[in-house]
């Protein structure tokens, strides 16, 4: 049966299974990805079915894991690296930024770097320190990296397939608080473009732009606003770098208002680039300044305070009201 209803986590598992079946050069590697099946069970059962040479349990050494993946890519493999939690990626940041991102440019395009780095990111699961970060803008700022994030099961499956097939390195952010949300997946559908945004809900009064874990929150906000007679359009970015400004521009030219929502801190966040670019592109269409909703410019708090830190329904609706009040 092609169409199934699966949790986002299971869709990722199915996508990795499909990639391993299709291409013998695909290798999955990371801490506890084999026998344990990953902390979130994204790689569950894969080592049993494909062997320890294809699904590799690595030491706890993120820099070494990514460095090894670069070497494998140079030899023609397509490594898929799992970083166990978002905050653990930073020991590998040097390898990613100074080596992985620059190999193709350094070789004038002759060297391919088909490396996917999967990173569970964001909060909302009551985790301890270093387990709830949203570092996407740090990677989006680096030329040579593609940065994407799915918001539903269908995108999780298809976007991971496309990331693995890419000859450029892809940072694949997985919204861990949405791992258990179920959605429809058609494994025989023709996927859309990897870096194309989608309109998740049509509207006429205001545009909400979000990605990853905040898409669901924005859809809930749009539904709540509709009860008050406000028509809110929701755009799911899907890709953070490259960024589909054309889809956002088309929406804003229709609605005249834009609110950008993400879990990461607002200060120097991806929403700032979107706000600046759309202000340039849509200056004469805007009926209000572009507003941003996100985390605070502070270290991620202890779990019992994270609901105060994370942008929720009320903060999104407050921004909607402020924009419509202009």
UniProtKB/TrEMBL annotation:
Give the Enzyme Commission number. Answer: 1.2.4.-
Its required cofactor(s), as named, are: thiamine diphosphate
Tell me which SMART domains the record gives: Transket_pyr
Q: What keyword terms does UniProt attach to this protein?
A: Oxidoreductase, Thiamine pyrophosphate
- A Pfam family: Transketolase_C
Q: Does the keyword Oxidoreductase apply?
A: yes
Give every Transketolase-like pyrimidine-binding domain span: 6-181
The superkingdom of the source organism is Bacteria
Which is an annotated GO molecular function term of this record?
A: oxidoreductase activity
Q: Which PANTHER family match?
A: PYRUVATE DEHYDROGENASE E1 COMPONENT BETA SUBUNIT (PTHR43257), PYRUVATE DEHYDROGENASE E1 COMPONENT SUBUNIT BETA (PTHR43257:SF2)
Protein name stated in the entry? Alpha-ketoacid dehydrogenase subunit beta
What's the source species for this entry? Streptomyces omiyaensis
């Amino acid at each position: 049966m092609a169409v199934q209803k699966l949790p986002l986590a299971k869709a990722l598992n199915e996508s990795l299974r499909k990639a391993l079946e299709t291409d013998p050069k695909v290798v999955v590697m990371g801490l506890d990805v084999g026998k344990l099946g990953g902390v979130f069970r994204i790689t569950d059962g894969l080592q049993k079915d494909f062997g320890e040479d294809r699904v590799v349990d690595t030491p706890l050494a993120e820099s070494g894991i990514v460095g090894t993946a670069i070497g494998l890519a140079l030899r023609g493999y397509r490594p898929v690296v799992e970083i166990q939690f978002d905050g653990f990626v930073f020991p590998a940041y040097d390898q990613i930024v100074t080596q992985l991102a620059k190999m193709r440019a350094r070789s004038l395009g002759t060297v391919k770097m088909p490396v996917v780095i999967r990173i569970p990111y964001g909060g909302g699961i009551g985790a301890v320190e270093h387990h709830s970060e949203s570092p996407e803008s740090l990677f989006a700022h680096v030329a040579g990296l593609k940065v994407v994030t799915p918001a539903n099961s269908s995108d999780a499956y298809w976007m991971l397939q496309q990331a693995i097939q890419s000859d450029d390195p892809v940072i694949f952010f997985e919204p861990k608080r949405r791992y258990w949300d179920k959605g429809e997946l058609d494994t025989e559908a023709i996927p859309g473009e990897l870096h194309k945004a989608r309109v998740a809900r049509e509207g006429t009064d205001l545009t909400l732009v979000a990605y990853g874990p905040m898409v669901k929150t924005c859809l809930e906000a749009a539904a709540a606003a509709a009860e008050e007679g406000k028509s809110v359009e929701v755009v799911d970015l899907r890709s953070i770098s490259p960024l589909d400004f054309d889809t956002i521009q088309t929406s804003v030219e229709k609605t005249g208002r834009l609110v950008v929502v993400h879990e990461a801190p607002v200060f120097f966040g991806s929403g700032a680039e979107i706000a600046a670019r759309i202000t340039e592109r849509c200056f004469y269409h805007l009926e209000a300044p572009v507003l941003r909703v996100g985390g605070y410019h502070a270290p991620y708090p202890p779990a019992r305070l994270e609901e105060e830190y994370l942008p929720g329904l009320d903060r999104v609706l407050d921004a909607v009201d402020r924009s419509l009040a202009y």
